[in-house]
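Repro:
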Amino acid sequence: MELRAHLGTGRRLAVPRSLAAGYGAVASLLVIVYFLPVTSDNVQVAIYEMLGIGVPVSIVIGLLRYRPANKVHWLLFLAGFTSWAVGDAYWNYYRWILHAQAGYPSLADVAYQFGYPMLIVGAFALTAGRRKPSLRELLDAAIVAVGAATLAWTVLVEPALMQSGLSAAGTAFTISTPVADVVLLLAVAELAFRTRITNVALRCVIASFGFTLLADVAYSYLNLHGGYTNGMFIDGGWMLGYALLAVAALHPSMATIRPVVQAKISRPTGWRLAILGAALFAAPLALLADFL
């Protein structure tokens, strides 16, 4: 008997979770193996490539298996992560076949930038049809957006504009990545602040974008200062983002991500307060660092 999980309800899924759980276990093991000292570069490339390709493959499997009534966001995620998989393949071609690091910017960066709009629209599509956001929810999202934008400008965008060593294309890509990340963060914040989330797939989607955004910020900063190399800890953020999105697509609750009416008054959760606190401190800390 198939029981569907609803966003905002306490129902449990009786549908076997073996596919999603099995993929999550294998992906976790691969991430661990990736960072083992004995793991060769070729094995690292293979692991990263498998996790990247695993996302669009898992979305297709989820769409065919669970047949969600609303699939727009999944199709957008499919397009976005397929574009990222192409970028990863180009990047890894240099690392695996040519034993070198791709230039910056390269066709990989074009593929990554093409994927961002798909993921951003897909994240906003998850909020389509929801109840009208309250003033508190709008203020929460605005706080996160302003804090992230201030931090991105101070730490990433302004230094990129002042750096003379980058070409015009390099400067454009360096700036466009944090800008896209801020917009994606706003979409995820709007989604996360709308209601109490009990849908497993939706939790995984939000966590996936969270790890991806953290890795993007770290990469943009290190790349700006010439400090990024293949196999760094940052790769773990992207791989976890890939793994969680694939788990979300393979979980039965992926077919039932939809809103439910929420009580007018809700108690703020710890993670929500933590996000808002970090956003509030981001702006003054960034300005202080810039002043010093």
